[in-house]
Q: What sequence folds into this?
């Protein structure tokens, strides 16, 4: 018997059950799970173009995610609040090669403690532990423009006049497993120092956020004199402008540059949300990214897509999502080698959905969706297919999946 899920369930039940007698506990979280088939039989197939940074997610997620969050307020001191945050999580990709349907991977995605509203830190926060950190996400393609998840510590959201300042130190102490005498993993790691300044009121109805993250290797020789291979330094700089109230929604425009050794990425992205009348919400994203690597091994990626979400009546909604991706590989890239040329790879994906949701708003949750997803690609993209897409539709230039997915946050 697998005792880990049972232990976690007992811990959650005990925490919630003791809330009335102990600390104030907030229970929140996220989950998605479902089942699907491809039109050739077998499991649902999900579609992403080789070389693209993301895929369009509606009806195109072949995984389970469960992330229950427990946040307990433990103490107050001189106007500050002190908490512990715990998030056991479960994740499983459908093509992970696990034969048992309940063989889910359980881990602690977050476990950290923090103090908030500390006057000596400009009304900010101090924290330490493992957490989701610096996540700046675009919803319909599930892209994290900024993400520094991991183990670390820092000060956060300090009010510094023009905005809120956050600084952290992030490192993975579980890097490598020391073994033989000449093993260098115990003497080698990377750390990063993410700095962000958010809430800069530069225009009416809008604000600017700036993210700067430097990273480098931390290593030592040690008693046996064997050193780890040298790793390059890294730097990422991103700026994101938000404008509220445009087209009945909001605009986010961003630009980012990051460098790790000889690998460089430059990108611009814009997201626009809005409404058509009272019944339909919409969300559109366009992005262009240039990747440069040694020996002309990078590529250029362009992506554009949109989703509409229309209220029909009762709990029912209709959703439509269309996304198009194009990758132009550089002459020395593995993508160009597989395709036999430097011609563009293209893929267009469309999903139609009938959903039942707990509310009239486009983001009402819980929701259960019945979907049909169809994707089409050119010959260069076909020669670069991978995973289950290649296994099922590798001899075709199109594929279709159908399924049902449940999703909620609370």
A:
């Amino acid at each position: 018997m697998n005792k880990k899920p049972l232990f976690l369930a007992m811990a959650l039940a005990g925490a919630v059950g003791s809330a009335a007698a102990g600390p104030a506990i907030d229970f929140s979280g996220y989950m998605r799970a479902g089942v699907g088939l491809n039109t050739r039989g077998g499991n649902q197939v999900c579609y992403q173009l080789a070389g693209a940074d993301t895929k369009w997610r509606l009806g195109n997620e072949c995984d389970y995610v469960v992330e229950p969050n427990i946040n307990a307020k433990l103490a107050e001191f001189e106007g500050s609040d002190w908490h512990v945050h715990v998030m056991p999580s479960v994740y499983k990709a459908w093509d992970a090669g696990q034969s048992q349907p309940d063989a889910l991977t359980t881990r602690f995605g977050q476990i950290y403690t923090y103090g908030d509203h500390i006057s000596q830190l400009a009304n900010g926060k101090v924290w330490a532990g493992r957490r989701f950190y610096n996540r700046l996400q675009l919803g319909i393609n599930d892209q994290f423009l900024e993400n520094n998840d991991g183990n670390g510590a820092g000060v956060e959201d300090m009010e510094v006049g023009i905005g809120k300042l956050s600084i952290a130190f992030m490192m993975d102490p579980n890097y490598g497993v020391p073994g033989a005498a000449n093993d260098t993993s115990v003497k080698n790691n990377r750390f990063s120092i993410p700095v962000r300044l958010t809430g800069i009121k530069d225009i009416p109805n809008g604000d600017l956020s700036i993210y700067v993250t430097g990273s480098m290797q931390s290593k030592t020789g040690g008693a046996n004199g064997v050193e780890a291979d040298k790793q390059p330094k890294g730097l990422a700089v991103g700026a994101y402008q938000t404008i509220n109230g445009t087209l009945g929604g909001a605009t986010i425009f961003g630009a980012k540059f990051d460098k790790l050794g000889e690998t460089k990425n430059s990108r611009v992205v814009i997201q626009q949300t809005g409404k058509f009348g009272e019944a339909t919400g919409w969300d559109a994203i366009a992005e262009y990214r240039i990747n440069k690597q040694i020996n002309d091994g990078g590529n250029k990626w362009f992506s554009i897509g949109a989703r509409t979400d229309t209220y029909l009546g009762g709990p029912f909604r209709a959703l439509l999502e269309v996304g198009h991706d194009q990758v132009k590989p550089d002459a020395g890239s593995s993508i160009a080698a597989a395709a036999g040329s430097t011609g563009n790879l293209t893929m267009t994906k469309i999903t139609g959905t009938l959903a039942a949701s707990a509310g009239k708003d486009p983001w009402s949750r819980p929701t259960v969706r019945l979907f049909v997803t169809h994707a089409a690609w050119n010959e260069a993209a076909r020669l670069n297919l991978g995973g289950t897409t290649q296994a099922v539709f590798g001899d075709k230039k199109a594929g279709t999946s159908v399924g049902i997915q449940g999703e909620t946050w609370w």
